[in-house]
């Protein structure tokens, strides 16, 4: 099953003049984020990553907190995640796609007012980083529009996954043209994950605390057509390094 960048469509509502004025005042106080483009994203993120070596983030939801460690050998993805989180961009997001036994996907919301720009992140595939249970990775558009498998600017997902049989894992090795290490084989066949996504999407971190929260989100009732949670699961992301 492939993860794609999808948009959650929410019904809009009409507001009174007083409410619109209040919104305008609030917008002036919101933190700002300089939008990036495909032309300057790598340069900006490279420089930002050197100035901000942070590698721990806490994703807070109504179900509890998920603490993740960001990999330093995926520097562009780490810098991008830290940059958006520190700017408050992810505080306007939610887990908008939930597939039990597969993954929960977040980072987007139709209610967001902050803009990040229309850019993609070059893939940073690393055979050391695979889609084990708890892996943090970036979503992307499909192969036809994105042959280089560049990542979305902001949509991320956390793998829930299931235990994989040795026979299934061998099939995925052939499919993805890769060879799993004994440790990776043990993890997939005893803990679980989603090997179908390996070398297709960039894994740039992992859950170190709060996998129970991921499981709770995965249990949310969803719309059968789009896998959208019927009850919004908002998230806020704080860079903590603790």
From TrEMBL:
Q: Which GO terms describe its molecular function?
A: peptidyl-prolyl cis-trans isomerase activity
Which Enzyme Commission number(s) are on file for it? 5.2.1.8
The enzyme's main class, written as a single word, is: isomerase
The record's listing under Pfam families reads: Pro_isomerase
PANTHER family from the UniProt entry: PEPTIDYL-PROLYL CIS-TRANS ISOMERASE-RELATED, PEPTIDYLPROLYL ISOMERASE DOMAIN AND WD REPEAT-CONTAINING PROTEIN 1
Q: Does the keyword Isomerase apply?
A: yes
PPIase cyclophilin-type domain residues: 55-242
Q: Which UniProt keywords apply?
A: Isomerase, Rotamase
Name the species this protein comes from: Pontibacter ruber
Q: Which Gene3D superfamilies match?
A: Cyclophilin-like (2.40.100.10)
**Any idea what this protein is called?**
peptidylprolyl isomerase
Would you say which domain of life the source belongs to?
A: Bacteria
């Amino acid at each position: 099953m492939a993860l794609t960048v999808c948009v959650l469509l929410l019904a809009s509502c009409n507001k009174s003049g007083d409410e619109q004025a209040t919104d305008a005042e609030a917008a002036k106080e919101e933190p700002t984020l300089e939008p990036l483009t495909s032309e300057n994203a790598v340069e900006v993120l490279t420089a930002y990553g050197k100035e901000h070596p942070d590698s721990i983030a806490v994703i807070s939801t109504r179900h509890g907190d998920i603490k993740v460690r960001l990999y330093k050998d995926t520097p562009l993805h780490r810098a991008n995640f830290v940059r958006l989180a520190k700017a408050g961009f992810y505080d306007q997001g939610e887990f908008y796609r939930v597939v039990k036994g597969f993954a929960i996907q977040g980072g987007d919301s139709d209610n967001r007012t902050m803009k990040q720009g229309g850019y993609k992140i070059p893939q940073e595939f690393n055979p050391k980083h695979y889609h084990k249970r708890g892996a943090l990775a970036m979503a992307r558009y499909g192969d036809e529009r994105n042959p280089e498998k560049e990542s979305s600017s902001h949509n991320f997902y956390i793998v829930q996954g299931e235990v994989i049989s040795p026979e299934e894992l061998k099939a995925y090795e052939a499919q993805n043209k890769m060879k799993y290490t004994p440790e990776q084989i043990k993890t997939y066949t005893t803990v679980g994950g989603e090997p179908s996504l390996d070398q297709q999407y960039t894994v740039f971190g992992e859950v170190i605390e709060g996998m129970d929260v991921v499981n709770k989100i995965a249990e949310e009732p969803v719309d059968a057509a789009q896998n959208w949670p019927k009850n919004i699961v908002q998230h806020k992301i704080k860079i903590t390094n603790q």
